[in-house]
Specification:
alpha+beta; CBS-domain; 5 strands
């Protein structure tokens, strides 16, 4: 299984924002859409960063609620690990586990085309295991 299979199942919609949006704006977007992160895009839709609800909470804990007026570019993760549609689920699981993040933008030819979460990866891995188990049961039953 690969990233393309996940995007086919869940869709390619990604909530994005500009680097000059305030942290409060981002928090409102997170709440409105019920999501855990927003991809920050720059010129021509290129990934400039990513900000999660954890990033916002850390900033508030560090400096208080006044940071909610600051632009998201001050606390977003600027070095973003991305993947491609051809990447395997095993690669994503390894990267997400090793670097301790929960979301990975999907980029092709320098453009953002989707977003994969650890939940998406786990769901796909479970579906794959269930298919293998069903195939094994069928093999044994007809064996």
């Amino acid at each position: 299984m690969n990233v393309a299979a996940i995007l086919k199942m869940k869709g390619r919609e990604v909530v994005t924002s500009a680097p000059d949006a305030s942290l409060l704006d981002i928090a409102e977007v997170l709440g409105k859409h019920g999501i855990g992160c927003v991809v920050i895009t720059g010129a021509e839709g290129k990934v400039a960063g990513i900000v999660s609800e954890r990033d916002i909470v850390r900033e508030i804990a560090r400096a208080g609620a006044k940071v909610l007026k600051d632009p998201v570019k001050t606390c977003m993760t600027k070095t973003v690990f991305t993947c491609r549609e051809a990447d395997t689920i095993d690669r994503l699981m390894a990267e997400m586990t090793a670097h301790r993040f929960r979301h990975m933008p999907v980029v092709e030819r320098g453009r953002l085309i989707g977003l994969v979460s650890i939940g998406d990866v786990v769901r796909m891995r479970i579906a794959e295991a269930e298919m293998e188990a069903a195939a094994m049961r069928d093999y044994i039953a007809t064996g």
